[in-house]
Amino acid sequence: MARERPVREVPVPVILSLCCGLTLQILWQTEQPPSQAIARALPPPPRIDVLEVASLGEQEALGRVLMLWLQAFDNQPGISIPFRDLNYGHAIGWLDAILTLAPRSQYPLLAASRLYAEVPAPVKQRQMLEFVYQRFLDDPNRRWQWLAHAAVLAKHRLADLPLALRYAQAIASHATGKDVPHWAKQMHIFVLEDMGEIETAKVLLGALLDSGTVTDPDEIEFLTSRLNQLQSPRRVSPPRNK
Amino acid sequence: MHMHLRAILTIALFTLREAIQNRLISLVLAALISLFGLAEFIGEVAITESAETKVSILSSALRFFAVLLISLFVTMSMLREQHEKSLDLVLSLPISRASYFFGRLLGFSGAAIVVAALIGLCLLLYSPAQRVGPWVLSLACELFIVASVSIVCLFTFRQATLALSSVFGFYVLARTIGSIQLIGHGPLADPSAPSQRFISGVIDILAFLLPDLDRYTSSQWLIYGAADGRDLVAIIGQTMIYLVLLIGAGLFDLYRKNF
């Protein structure tokens, strides 16, 4: 015996009501106004404890989902918003919350230093770089590369050598782990040189070479040659971008 | 004793067979393929830590799916048994109520292990075995608790809607109670207000009664390394204690029922 009865067994009013319902639904949808792309402003983040409850104990996963959502916020349905038009106070709030949910993820600081801090809006750039600096201090040995990038941005994009020096000095003072490369720890010396602080740069470079922490022969040779250049009486060292 | 054990094993075997007939494994495989595709898509969107993002989202989605699947399977299976009067038939045989209960629980636990193992095999694509192993063990413990709670809720309410709502309510509370407790005792709460003291007291009592499911099966283990031995011992200990409590509650209800 077949599991279903033939269609002819279905009463005609039932078939009619089915067709009628389908037709009405299609007509209803054709009468609806087309959706319009409306740019939404970035909302402020909720409190961190609310996010923790919402994560059901999976803070890491929620942090990563929120990061993807925030990253894609500039691409809303049918519209694209430049990063510089975002509310940076709110964006920093979200990045901060995500970093609290997933503290070992590098994603929020990468986005902060390489996406949001690259916009052509100096005030917003500074806001974002300051955020990177503050969160670097929480875990310097893991987050030094984002502050190093912040120092480069401060030097070349903002032309703010004192700010670059502050970041470079923070790396030298706090990121003392063995995995942090020497170039990052030595960054502040070259920023000082760029600022025309030749004497300070010479002292620091000499002290670095004497300390014995640099063991790579090529690196020692490079640093020695830089020290010799600094000590050369013919060197002209006007302060740049001071 | 030997007869009881045989009865338990037979009931467990029939429960496992029911799981296969209900296409539980096919459903798990379909979900694995769908969620795997979704994770790959999400991973493409990420500009860094793509593998970590994929494994984190995939594992937490699979964890929810496994809990949903086991609670639905246990509830619907027990409900069907009640409606078809096969429970009455089993209990008319020389099988004790405890043997029936343990047989069913063993069968559901077997299904939970199969589900957890299949999910673990999928996660091996993204994370090494020494990280996936503890995660799967913890998921299996979590599923044992969910299966037991589902049995108890069904015995208590005898209705799918009420039983499943209670199971999901229990699960969400067990995973959030730690954070809720922190908010209740946080600086924003006014400890001098009687209403606040009452709410905090209720939350504290609930925290005592619920298992710490927020410490189970974290996706962090798959990204940064497995939980250490103490965490796993704590999870196994909590599971054993809670299972004793749930088995007691389930048997209490079963022995009081008239069929």
Describe the fold and architecture.
The complex is a heterodimer of chains A (242) and B (259). With 242 residues, chain A is mainly α. Chain A has a domain at 41-160. Chain A contains twelve helices and two strands, in the order H-H-H-E-E-H-H-H-H-H-H-H-H-H. Chain A has helices at 12-31, 48-54, 59-71, 88-101, 107-115, 122-136, 140-156, 161-174, 182-185, 187-194, 198-211, 217-231, and strands spanning 75-76, 79-80. Chain A has a two-stranded antiparallel sheet. In chain A, strand 1 and strand 2 form a beta hairpin. Chain B is mainly alpha-helical and 259 residues long. Chain B has one domain (2-256). Helix content of chain B is 82%, strand content 0%. Chain B has helices spanning 2-21, 24-45, 50-83, 86-92, 97-123, 129-157, 160-184, 194-209, 220-224, 229-256. The radius of gyration of chain B is 20 Å and the shape is globular. The mean pLDDT of chain B is 90. At the A-B interface, helix 2, helix 3 and helix 5 of A face helix 3, helix 7 and helix 9 of B.
Quick description:
The complex is a heterodimer of chains A (242) and B (259). By secondary structure, chain A is mainly alpha-helical.
